[in-house]
Design goal:
hydrolase; glycosidase; about 10% strand; globular; five-stranded antiparallel beta sheet; multifunctional enzyme; DNA-binding; alpha+beta; DNA repair; HhH-GPD_domain
Length: about 280
DNA sequence: TTACAGGTCCGGA
DNA sequence: TCCGGACCTGTA
């Protein structure tokens, strides 16, 4: 078991920050995730983490995936102390990192997320992977499913998508998979594009509006200047920033601050009922 | 029963 | 450019 001491990271906070829907707590303090076709378990005790992979795989895949070369301490320290709301949000979400997840998975995930609730999003994605993903076995014997590529989704067709509880989003998923296969939506070009160009191309796709495009840019392309405004963030901005959020102060990485705010809003009920000890 | 979920599309003003 | 209604479906 590989052990690492890592700063500014908390698995529960990452799992509850709304950026990933497949990260699952297997036991107390042990989380499982699937990415790049691989299965990983991470255990956390304070700032010491154990990984169910080799040092080589950690360096090749997970170090980047967990965004470990970004110093979140600097980001948190840049928060204006005269901004009590953001200061508190960053304090409570101190262990959030932006995972560098796979672009295709983020496109489909956030297409499904629209006008939807988190438990149903998770359920739909789990079903999607179980139905159309590849069934694999990890080195420790765990069974897991990969996230299905565009080929698998088109092969399954609308008939299979209808069984996943996606509602009216099923046609968005299908047509996006088609667009990637046909080359209308080129993922490699999307990865090379800057934020504005990527956002423009994404919103041109049927079913992807501003908000979903921003989520894809932030979580699938690591354009951390993207600042998705959903119902939660919209409410936060109305209440705490009636004169507008000070984007100029945090130019280039607003998306990370948005995550602190989003996490805070999503989980404040849990904090209030003291189910999570801060 | 109605409202709400990490919205988008579409038609009309 | 802006606005309102429709939209799948599960949960409270």
């Amino acid at each position: 078991m590989l052990k690492k001491k890592l700063p500014d990271m908390d698995l529960m906070q990452i799992a509850r920050s709304g950026q990933c829907f497949r990260m699952e707590e297997k036991q107390e303090g042990i989380y499982a995730l699937v990415a790049f076709g691989k299965y990983l378990e991470i255990g956390q005790e304070g700032d010491v983490f154990s990984f169910s992979c080799s040092e080589q795989e950690f360096q090749e895949i997970w170090r980047n995936y967990l965004d470990l070369d970004t110093d979140y301490g600097i980001i948190k320290a840049s928060v204006d102390p005269g901004d009590p709301y953001l200061t508190e949000a960053a304090r409570l979400g101190w262990g959030i990192r932006i995972l560098r997840q796979e672009l295709w998975e983020m496109i489909i995930t956030f297409l499904i997320s629209q006008n939807n609730n988190i438990s149903r999003i998770r359920r739909s994605i789990e079903l999607l992977c179980r139905t159309l993903g590849e069934d694999r076995t990890a080195e420790n014997g765990r069974q897991y499913d990969t996230f299905p590529g565009p080929e698998a989704i088109v092969r399954g067709g609308m008939a299979v998508l209808k069984t996943l509880g996606l509602g009216y989003r099923d046609k968005y998923v299908y047509r996006t998979a088609q667009a990637v296969l046909e080359g209308t939506l080129n993922l490699e070009e999307l990865k090379r594009a800057d934020y504005e160009e990527a956002h423009r191309r994404l919103t041109a796709q049927y079913g992807i509006g501003r908000k979903v495009a921003d989520c894809i840019c932030l979580f699938g392309l690591y354009h951390i200047e993207a600042f998705p405004i959903d119902t939660h963030v919209k409410k936060i901005l109305e209440v705490h920033y009636p004169l507008g959020f000070p984007h100029d102060k945090y130019r280039g990485y607003g998306g990370i601050l948005q995550q602190y705010m989003f996490y805070n809003d999503l989980n404040e009920k849990l904090y209030r009922t003291a189910r999570i000890v801060v």
